[in-house]
Each structure stands twice: as C-alpha cells, then as structure tokens.
Amino acid sequence: MGSIVTTAWPRAAAPTAAATDTRRIVVTGATGFLGGAIARRLVATRPHARVLGIGRDSDRGRALQADGVDWLALDLDDAAGVARALDGADAVVHSAALSSPWGRRADFVRANIDASEHVVAAGIAAGAKRLVHVSTPGIYHDGRPHRGIAEDDPLPARAANDYADTKRIAEQRVLAHCARASLPVLVLRPRAIFGPGDSAILPRIAQAMRHGRLRRLGDGRCTVDLTYVENVVDAALLALDAPATLTGRAYNITNGEPVAIWDVIDRLADALDLPRPDKRAPLPLALAVSSVIENAYRLLRPGVEPPVLRYAVELLSVDMTLDIGRARAELGYRPRIGMDEALAITFAALARARP
C-alpha cells in the first residue's frame, strides 16, 4: 500500500458561473512522462480545477507538487486506496501503465489490467462524469507493414507482446465496465510519444548509437508515425471536455506527419555529434537473430531484457502509420506542434542532458 504524500480532497460545491472549469480531476501515472505532462497542463490552464496526480516516484511527485499538482503516492494495486483517492472526482485520466517490450506476464497483468479495473470501479463509485483511458496502437502491431490504420480495423489474432496484449484486454474491459455503468469514456491510442523528459524512444536509440549497437535495417525506408507529447496532452484535454454523448469511442493520436524513421535517427545523431549509423543488417537476418536471442533469454535469463528484441527490430523496419481522421472530426484534434519543431525541441533537450 502506498503512503499518502498529500491527501485526497473533500467533495467540493458545484461550480459557479464564474468558475465553470471547477472540476476535480485525477490523473493516474502522474509521475510518468505523459501523465506528468497532462497534470501540469491542467494546473497551468485551468486555475479553478483541482488536480490530483497519482504516482509512485517520490522525486517526481515532489516536482509535481512544486508545479501546483496535488500528489498522492499510491500503488494502483491497492483497490481500496484507489477508491479513496477518486472519491469526489469529476473526471479521471488513466495514463498509468507498465509500458515495456519485455517483462513478466504477471507484472503486465497487474499494472495494465488489474489497475485499470480498480480505476474504473473507483470512477464509477465516485460518480465521475468522464474517464479518459490511455491505450496504445501497439495493439495493431503484427510485424507487417501497415499504412493508415483506422481504429476499427481488425486487430491481429495474437498480440506482439505481453504489453500489447494486456493493454488490449484492459481497453476492452474499461469500455465494457463503463458502458454498463453509463460512465462516459473515451480511449486514446497515441503512437510513439516523444519529447523532453521521455526515456523510452529517442534516448534509447541514442544510447544504442553511442555504444555502436545500432544497425540500419532492410532498405532503410521505414515510414512511421510519431507523436509529440504536448500534442497528446492536447488530445487528452479535448477528450476530457468532449460532450457526455460522445462515449465508447477510441481515437488514434499522432502528429499527422509520417516520417522516415532513419532520417529522424540521422538527425538525432547529428544533433548529438554522434556518427550516423552506417553498418547495415539484412532484415531477415536481424529478425532471425533477435528471435533466437529472445528465446535464449526466456529460457536462461527470463528476468533480464535481451540486448536486442524482435519487436524493436520491427519498429525500425516495418511501416506503421495511423489514420487520425476520427480524432480530427469528433474531438477537433489538430496537432499543434509540427514534427520539425517537435524534433528540434527534443534533440536540443537530449543534447543538454548528454552524459
């Protein structure tokens, strides 16, 4: 059970006409990359809103407090604690997740499925008026190239990994529970979130380049969608403000500007004064080798992430772009920060933080 750093709020009076944005909003995963960005934006732009961020990282929690976010140290395993934290909440953004291409199945089930069940149950009991559930386009991934994937396109029979599988199950259960309880819910599927403070995508690629481990895969023309974090925050706030009649819908979220991933990697290398990757690996060989390494680690070192993953190879070699037409039409989503500006901001932050 997590320890409470700041207590949950008492129930507040209904908002007045002079403060129509008075709401009590809970953000789970607030000590994570996306959740923290959402909580900070809410505090910065909604002076009458009361924002409670839930997370487990004490250093990041204190940083949230310094920025005006109420913070609660809580493990979402604690169903009773989640219920207490959400008591009185008008809206919930559930962004907490175990996001990793490798790990124990039980950990993914607990963090992605069980935690989501606890959050939804607490939101329903609290009488919340909106739940925004952050899912992932990883549920679409099947190792084959796809362009313009739409939200209702058929999903692969088998998920790419335990992360994608448990997020898919969580999304389905969240939608079902909310439908039964008439809790308005919207699902966001943001693709490859990046920006200052991210540790999952571009920093890992940079680290691989520094150690000479990155190889150009296949023909090097892989086209993908990426999403700048502030644009995802925009989408989350649009989902929070959507009318209650708009419920049960899922939305792809991207920057709307597909990029050649190896061009991005070359720009990253230039920004960090690193040599551009020049060694190549035939894609069939890279896939075969990564599969062999994964199988060996599952057998001999199941608790250790392999140095190369088949999923990672596919992400850098297989086209994947999403159709964001539904988010544009129904939420009014418009990627506000373009790809060139977003990459420049992110590269500059990575250069400043270079060890």
List the helices and strands and how they pair.
Elements (H helix, E strand, L loop, with lengths): L23 E5 L4 H13 L4 E6 L2 H9 L3 E4 L5 H8 L4 E4 L10 H22 L3 E5 L11 E4 L12 H20 L3 E6 L2 E2 L7 H9 L5 E2 L5 E2 L2 E2 H13 L7 E5 L5 E2 H11 L8 E2 L1 H18 L9 H6 L4 E3 L2 H7 L7 H14 L3
Parallel strand pairs: 1-2, 1-4, 2-3, 4-5, 5-7, 6-15, 7-12, 8-11, 9-14
Antiparallel strand pairs: 10-13
GO molecular function: aldehyde dehydrogenase (NAD+) activity
Protein name: NAD-dependent epimerase/dehydratase family protein
Give the tags.
single chain; disordered N terminus; Rossmann fold; NAD-dependent epimerase/dehydratase family protein; alpha/beta; 355 residues; NAD(P)-dependent_oxidoreduct; two-stranded parallel sheet; 15 strands; 42% helix; seven-stranded parallel beta sheet
